[in-house]
Write a structure and sequence with these properties.
Blueprint: H1 6-19, H2 23-33, H3 52-64, H4 67-76, E1 84-85, H5 86-96, H6 105-118, E2 123-124, E3 130-132, H7 135-144, H8 147-164, H9 180-186
Antiparallel strand pairs: 1-3, 2-3
Helix pairs in contact: 4-5, 4-6, 4-8, 5-8
Length: 191
């Protein structure tokens, strides 16, 4: 549920203790309110005094200072968290580049991923051909977006995936329908 996020685990434990509720009740509340529940109770056991959302805010702001990296990160918030292929990220960059990058196509991806990796907002998967993002980071990212930013990021993801997932025939550039998990991930965000 919380992956490798000790702050989130501590906050969950603190909330359960303070509210005098069962783990089952907490999970029920969490499923209906999302990570907003974690803002209700700051950590009480560890040395940190911030909630999960506020602890990440500085990282989000730093990444957003690079318009291209920030835009890519916003789109990543809507994709399937466990396996975001480099091929897909390159296609997203082609479709949604905000401002020109003066590097060849092969280096563009690394340039845009560098701040996301440096601030531990994503991690590179074994083999280096994909990245992943914690679902809680995705949720907090979506929550902090304005409606306009959210619509843009969602539409950008849909635009690229629509182009890459063929309805019939041979997919462009040899890209296979392996992106179906991303399409399924986006579906709940459609209103």
């Amino acid at each position: 549920l919380f992956g490798n996020l000790p702050v989130a685990l501590e906050q969950a434990g603190a909330y359960i203790c303070e509210q005098h509720i069962s783990l089952e009740r907490y999970l029920s509340i969490l499923s209906s309110s999302g990570v907003e529940i974690l803002d209700d109770q700051p950590p009480i056991l560890g040395p940190y005094q911030h909630t999960v959302r506020t602890a990440w805010e500085a990282n989000f702001v730093a990444v957003a200072s690079d318009a291209n990296a920030g835009a890519l990160f916003d789109i990543i918030a809507f994709l399937y968290a466990d396996e975001i292929e480099n091929d897909l990220l390159r296609e997203i960059i082609k479709d949604t580049i905000i401002s020109p990058i003066r590097e060849d196509e092969g280096r563009q991806l690394e340039t845009l991923l560098r701040p996301l990796l440096s601030y531990s907002l994503i991690r590179r998967n074994t083999g280096g051909e994909s990245v992943s993002v914690h679902r809680m980071i995705q949720t907090v990212t979506k929550m902090r977006m304005s409606e306009q930013e959210r619509d843009w990021a969602l539409r950008s993801a849909i635009l690229t995936l629509t182009r890459l997932v063929p309805t019939a025939g041979v997919p462009p550039s040899g890209i296979t329908p392996r992106f179906a998990s991303h399409v399924l991930s986006i579906t709940p965000d459609l209103h």
